[in-house]
Amino acid sequence: MKSLNKNAVLLIFCFSFSVVNAQHEIKPEKGYTPQIGLMVDMLEELKDRLTEDINDLDQAETDYLFDDKANSIGAIIMHLVATEAYTQVETLEERTWTVEEREFWLIAAGLGAESRDKLKGKPIKYYLDQWDQVRGKTLKGLKAKDDAWFAATIDESMNNHWAWFHVLEHQANHMGQIAMVKKRLPE
């Protein structure tokens, strides 16, 4: 039997360590159809991880901009909430934002100069409370749907499953951005 090289041993060790020390098992959330339940489990896991990572930020950390093109952690969270709110009304309610909703969410949707200017001065709890409210509506709406709806095409090349996958991947993407901003926070 050939002996394994050092890289192979390290790879096996890392894989074994990560499997043995996995923090979460993806299982359909109870009360939902199987495919939607899996998505809910992943959405909730990611939200919990992000919340745990930023829950204790003070006001200066919540609003911190490391340069003139950066986004604050508060603005990024509000951006995630706006994306979920948009997907929620488009897929679950089959409508577009009202004028009032558009006025409230559009600032965060774009993450630009306006969001840098207007999304500040609120504690991290404000942004997390907004997320909790939107997520509550999302969970209620998804509970009322089934896997046939989840697989249904809503646009030429998109189904409801992909729309909610996009919310998930969007949150994961910005999770990295938040980690980078946290590393740049002043001591």
Q: What's the number of structural domains?
A: 1
User: Shape from CA axes?
Assistant: globular
Main sheet strand line-up:
1-2
Largest sheet entry:
2 strands, antiparallel
Write up this protein.
- With 187 residues, the protein is mainly alpha-helical.
- It has one domain (26-184): Up-down Bundle (Four Helix Bundle (Hemerythrin (Met), subunit A)), CATH 1.20.120.450.
- 69% of the residues lie in helices and 3% in strands.
- The chain is built from nine helices and two strands, in the order H-H-H-H-H-H-H-H-E-E-H.
- It has helices at 6-20, 34-54, 59-63, 73-92, 99-110, 113-118, 124-143, 147-151, 160-184; strands at 153-155, 158-159.
- A two-stranded antiparallel ribbon has the order 1-2.
- Helix 2 packs antiparallel against helix 7 (124-143) and helix 4 (73-92) runs parallel beside helix 7 (124-143).
- The longest helix is centred in the last third of the chain and has 25 residues, at 160-184.
- It is globular.
